Amino acid sequence: MFKKDITTGAKSKVKSSAQRGIRAKVLEEYPRLEPYIEEIMPKKEQLDLVKLPDRVSVYTLGSTPLFFQHMDDELLPHLSLVHRYPSCFPRLRIDRGAIRFVLSGATLMVPGLTSLGGRLPNDPEDEEGRYGEEELDAGEVVVIEAEGKENACMVGVLKMGTAEMKKVKKGQAFEAGHYLGDGLWGLNLG
């Protein structure tokens, strides 16, 4: 979605009533953010809306991007927010071989998640329980981590549920999302 550099469009202030609605929607979609919501979106601070090409909107606090949205789709967290609160989002892990493809904007395929270095929920290799016990469904927002790396490298929407991935072990796993080094990551909001 953001393979090329992006030029920002109009920037406008979000009305306080709309801001309350966005805050409620964020808490509904990401309930684990509740203890941090006052840090992320303080009630007294002004939230801005930045329009991008292809009907994408980015919600920012000052020059800090928080969430983005394509048309009326779900709110997706910006990777900078994911890096600050990594345990607040469902996550999966890709193997080392898939990293270069993800960072070049290629579609994430199921083998990158089901191979030896990949991690899905209920993985016997996941001793810390980092990737959860609940299977994730198609359409859920998920953060992708990379084997051997500390920070998440991608955020997007699952195209296939994790239980199905374990069965078929092939196909597209992910809708195009936001990844490290893409146009949204390099966006200058200052």
Model description:
It comes from Zopfia rhizophila CBS 207.26. Belongs to the TMA20 family. This is Translation machinery-associated protein 20. The chain has 190 residues and is α+β, with helices and mostly antiparallel strands. It has 2 domains: 11-84, Sulfate adenylyltransferase, CATH 3.10.400.20; 88-179, Sulfate adenylyltransferase. The protein has 6 helices and 9 strands; from the N terminus they run E-H-H-E-E-E-E-H-E-H-H-E-E-H-E. The chain has helices spanning 16-29, 37-40, 79-84, 96-102, 111-114, 162-168; strands at residues 11-13, 47-52, 56-61, 64-70, 76-77, 91-94, 141-146, 152-157, 178-179. The protein has a 5-stranded antiparallel sheet with strand order 1-2-3-4-5. Strands 6-7-8-9 form a 4-stranded mixed sheet. A hairpin with a 2-residue loop joins strand 3 and strand 4 (64-70). The radius of gyration is 17 Å and the shape is globular. The two termini are 22 Å apart.
